[in-house]
Amino acid sequence: MKLPTRGRRWLIIFAAAATVYLLLAYIVAPALWTHHEHEPGLANLPMVTRTADGIPGDALNVGLVGNREDIIRAMHAAEWFPADPITLRTSIDIVGSVVLDRPYHDAPVSPLYYDGKKEQLAFEKPDGRSADRRHHVRLWQVLEKGTSGRPVWLGSITFDRGVGLSHDTGQVTHHIGPDIDAERDLLMRDLRAADMVEAFFQISGIGPTLLARNGEGDRYYTDGEIDVARLVVDGVRRAEPPVTLPPPVLIALKDRVWHSVSSSIAQ
Hints:
Blueprint lengths: L4 H28 L15 E3 L5 E4 L2 E4 L2 H10 L3 E2 L5 H13 L12 E2 L2 E2 L2 E6 L7 E10 L8 E14 L6 E5 L3 H14 L3 E8 L4 E5 L5 E4 L2 E7 L11 E2 L4 H18 L1
Parallel strand pairs: 3-14, 11-15
Antiparallel strand pairs: 1-2, 3-9, 4-7, 5-6, 7-8, 8-9, 9-10, 11-14, 12-13
């Protein structure tokens, strides 16, 4: 049966619109917001962690440049505490902290994996008395030498807003707050305030994401950028403000649009 001329015309228009949408959404737009000019060695790396079961976990959203000692000194100066390893004793201690509402600034964090490796460093910042509410970051070294000749680390920072059951497994876990960009910004502000940063810059992470879920089934949203701080060497505080390397113009425009959208989501 032959379609009427008008019907064929609308079918062609629909097919053309669908083709344009697919090109823009899946090829053009991702290409426009992908940039690694300040650390080209990070291009093509995965930007999401995994759980022990291989389920996609938290998105990578922060980066640090410096060796392990530089990071430990900087986080100490910024008043972030190193997380204890998970043992029977620390597991009992964190339960006691939550149930009895008592401080545990070094509470352990559950493991996540990147490139098959568990986090190599983890730090936290309490929010209240007990360990049920806290900011925490996990870090992995991904390059032995970046553009500055120093190691490059990528990390995932989130806010534990309370203890509950996993949406996916039913196990007891911390639930995260959805605005992971706010957590990224908090860490960068704390490092800046501690005079521990030589320079800031951005690279692309997972890209703008509105309705993602982590390995425990918690929703999160992000502009998809990774904020990177190049740390001072040997913990020597910087006397002048850190340098901020600007992102490409299209990335800055995308971020302004996204922040308008995300601010309406948060309300």
